[in-house]
Design goal:
104 residues, Jelly Rolls, globular
Length: 104
Amino acid sequence: MANLFAKLPTDVSQEHFNDLLKSEHVRVERIVSYGQSSPEQGWYDQDENEWVIVLEGSATLAFEGGKSLELDKGDYLNIPAHQRHKVLTTAAKGATIWLAIFYR
């Protein structure tokens, strides 16, 4: 047994990605952000679909074409494979804890 909110990383200078479950078609990942955002030129363009929820904190996602979404605690969405997106902001104070499920 484990707890998503336990043993949070103490290094706030970077984002932390931890696989919780991994199989051939599904990967579950906990992401902990401390105010990080995607690099200026950095777009995620993934081969997998991604279902993501903010468990703690907040974030703003941008999508190619100009659309952006603000996510607060409990907000979730599905991002289809190859939909280019990036993280504009995460909460400046405290941790933003994400749960991401990648699937084919």
